[in-house]
Design a protein that fits this description.
Elements (H helix, E strand, L loop, with lengths): L1 E9 L2 E10 L5 E5 L6 H9 L6 E6 L2 E5 L4 E2 L7 E4 L11 H11 L4 H14 L15 H13 L5 E5 L7 H18 L2 E6 L2 H7 L2 E6 L2 E6 L1 H6 L4 H6 L3 E9 L2 E4 L5 E2 L8 E7 L3 E3 L7 E10 L4 E7 L6 E7 L8 E6 L5 E4 L1
Length: 347
Amino acid sequence: MSINGLSLAYGKTTILNNISLMLPKGQTLALLGPSGCGKTTLLRLLAGLLTPTKGDVSINGTMVADATSGLFLPPEKRHLGMVFQDYALWPHMSVAGNVSFPLEMRGINRSDREKRVKTALERVGLSGFENRSISDMSGGQQQRVAIARAIVAEPKIVLFDEPLSNLDRELRENMVSEIKQLVTNLGLTAVYVTHDQSEAFALADQVAIMRGGIIEQFADPQSLVTSPASTQVADFLRLGCVLPIEYCSQNYKIRGTNYYLKAPHHNQNHSHVLIPTRAISATSSQDESVTAIVLRSQFRGDGHLTTVRIGDDSFNHEITYLDNLPRPQGSQTALSIDDSQLRWFSN
């Protein structure tokens, strides 16, 4: 799948701006971002539910939309499967009837439909459920029916629009594993929309982090964590604390403090630094440490998640780290920062 310079605007309002990316066959792309960032709009452009203002979309080497020439293939001619957030199942129809529907629309004969429906249900673990009523099934089972319907016609690409958002946490985690296994076993190419970072990282080969109608960063999950492209990405992924810094005495210090950080090179254009949670630890030494006031401490099983305040009256910064001990609110502690784990951002 290839997207080149894709944009969508309504009058003077730009919804998506110059989106370009490429997804190899057999890989999964997660569109990750907060509500209103444009990820579902991009999915609808891929599906053929919206027409782009600029740019083009190609699926398996076939151009399906091109704003310049006016080419636009409708959804039924794009060889897609789609799993919706609300499942979009017909409650008056049986499981087999719901799964069979895309095949009926393609004019597949009854005998072939029955064989394909049986195979699709086996793949999602619902063998023998053909005659079950949709209204008698749990949320997780309904989701499996929706996935079976999406794959029954053996599409070239499957689009998932936040398919697990209506499920409880435990079931959602189980379904993520099942979807991952299914996509892998069937060799599907998939695009998965979510606002949940853990879902995106568990499922995807590549992740596009979206913000304000643009792609802020496009990379594999590990690269996003180790090398966020901007402070916005670092904040969204909650990789730690992004703090303002200033160049002073041939090095950098955190604004509002006298604590100096060791930059890997003398670049005077840095304006912010990401301090990962794992890079911060409490210390008994007063040398090369920063003084902090404890705001709150919560036990979470593997330690005490502690939030502290550093800085003077002009710059107050909150930092969160994992402590071995509970710290009383209002108490003072000293923190050590591992400079080797810092990520630097320029103006």
